[in-house]
Amino acid sequence: MWSEVEALVGTSKAAGYEEAVRLLVDLRDLGRRRSGGDFAQRIAALRKANGRRSAFISRLDHAGL
Question: What is the pTM of this model?
Answer without folding.
Answer: 0.87
